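Re: weekly structure request thread

Next one in the queue (198 aa):
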Amino acid sequence: MWENCGDFRRLYPEIRDKTLVPADKCFMIYQFARIAGRKEGAFAEVGVYKGGTARLVARACPDKPIHLFDTFAGMPAADGLIDFHKKGDFSDTSLASVQSFLLDCPNACFHPGFFPDTAAAVSEEFFSFVYVDTDIYQSVKDCLDFFYPRMVTGGIMVFDDYEWPYCQGVEKAIHNFFADKKEIPVITARYQCAIFKY
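Done, posted below.
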């Protein structure tokens, strides 16, 4: 579906080996970032891992600052009743390696550590695009609590692992949060959804 999008076809090979996100979901992230790039507001990604999707977004919208949040040392502790990931999963990365990978992306701003403790530096910002790939209930909830009030009208939040049985906490956090709000999750690809801020 992206064969006629030369920009994505050029960018995707740069990031393919640095992400677990498949091409169809990456293409949706790319398209949403390009749409959000026309609005006021910064970008953010929580759950950076090796930096693949961060580079995709940073290169697609080079005029937008993208704030990158991750421990860069693996997953935090999770609720074993709804989350199947364990502390330390995805630890095969580092801040230095991701910074090196994004060296030619001057719009990338790094915030290493545990979110939302690391969010103080952007507490006065507004956002037009946020990508959340944190896999577990509490992390998704923390992202929603922090970013939703700071999203501009028409801003886009994209979530990975939505409806994936291995990450049940993601869907639960999203449904609980939006139960009393206007927005509803829109499925954009298998195990991915988006929220468009009213």
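The chain has a mean pLDDT of 94. Residues 23-36 form the longest helix (14 residues).
Next request, please.
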